[in-house]
Amino acid sequence: MRRPAVRLLWLGRLQYAELLALQERWLRRMQAEPRTEAPLGTEAGALLLCEPAGPVYTSGLRGGLTPQETARLRALGAEVRATGRGGLATFHGPGQLLCHPVLDLRHLGLRLRTHVAALEACAVRLCELLGLRGVSARPPPYTGVWLGECKICAIEDIYSKTLWLALQESVVGGTSHPMAWL
Fold it and tell me: What is the pLDDT of residues 76-113, one digit of tens each?
């Protein structure tokens, strides 16, 4: 039995706004054709991979940046964006790998928490392959991958309960301190 396919798109170095616009287009495309079950071999979404073209800080629903920090970052040339995702502030910059999955988890037979755990396991394995030892995910309700007290992979999500569609962002090589770029 063939599983639903997930399209992998390497976008190269990309402005953050362009990545978000592409993610929104994929989301609208998938929402336009909702199904309750996936026919065999159909597409279940895409993984949008890129490297940020410049320094960007995203501020989640729980905040994370003061107005003073935001002003200082913008004065130094960084982009600061509020997002509808959970979490605090996350740094995105050149040299990092961003992965923005736009997936219909029903087609893949996954629940959101299972999907997040799989992303964490993938990030841990990637770190191990790159020679980083002692990297681990923390137990729920926390997300991401940590090396000691340093968060090196952020996983933030948005999902629609009606479509069970996951919009997620994984950052490999990030920092847990939003002012570390300074």
Answer: 999 998 877 767 788 888 888 888 888 888 888 888 88
How many Cα atoms within 13 Å fall on the side-chain side of residue 25? Answer: 7
Question: Element (H or E) spanning 113, and its range?
Answer: helix 112-129
Cα(182)–Cα(161) distance, integer angstroms: 39
The residue written with tokens 């063939």 in the block is: 2
The neighbouring-strand residues paired with 56 are 79, 92
Question: 159-162: which pairs have CB atoms within 8 A and are 24 or more residues apart?
Answer: 159/105, 159/112, 160/31, 162/34
Instruction: Evaluate the CA torsion angle 81, 85, 89, 91 in order and state its sign.
Output: negative
pLDDT digits (tens, 9 = 90+) for 24-46: 888 888 878 756 555 545 778 88
